[in-house]
Fold this sequence. Notes:
This protein is an alpha/beta fold and about 280 residues long.
Amino acid sequence: xxxxxxxxxxxxxxxxxxxxxxxxxxxxxxxxxxxxxxxxxxxxxxxxxxxxxxxxxxxxxxxxxxxxxxxxxxxxxxxxxxxxxxxxxxxxxxxxxxxxxxxxxxxxxxxxxxxxxxxxxxxxxxxxxxxxxxxxxxxxxxxxxxxxxxxxxxxxxxxxxxxxxxxxxxxxxxxxxxxxxxxxxxxxxxxxxxxxxxxxxxxxxxxxxxxxxxxxxxxxxxxxxxxxxxxxxxxxxxxxxxxxxxxxxxxxxxxxxxxxxxxxxxxxxxxxxxxxxxx
Length: 279
């Protein structure tokens, strides 16, 4: 009987050990998935694919720095060769008594067609000073300006400061753009305005040798400084006087201001004219 009790005790102990082992094994197995879930996933750094470059826009026509200040004659470059005679050309700064000339520099541009429409609606004529470098792209505006009776002048090919060039450099610049302009004007161009109003004896000689007048200005409303057409109008009308040659530019804000400017000049009793070409 004693042996039987011992055997039962041994079996019970063995069963307890087996159950305890199973419990520990089960707990470990259950813990393993929890640990896998809580482990951080490796961080994947995504490098953004660069966007393809935008298609380059069509090059714009030259947009040079505008004329500003009072034009004045400068000295000839020291290395300008050969030595040449003194020019007798007298630059033109004004038109006649009770006359006013509006001049438009740096065109033609994409906006010149709109400018011409405004002038036609106002029954007004201006004098354009075109850049040779812009003429080919907007040649329709050149021929339209000629057809509609506007004055046509030349403003160099690429708008350099002529006085920084020697005689040969000025001559090359002068003739390069003039050929482009006269191709579309279909008539000899007789008016020249040096960029920035900057000229010297060499500039005058070249202008003279081409049978042209040098046209400067006596009123600069600085239309290039602002996009406010009302301010441009105020600047022009506060300075305008008998004989004014007004230097302006082929800019959208200037075009918007032109109807008010034209009306204001006429109300002051002045007649709008184009700059006369030499005979």
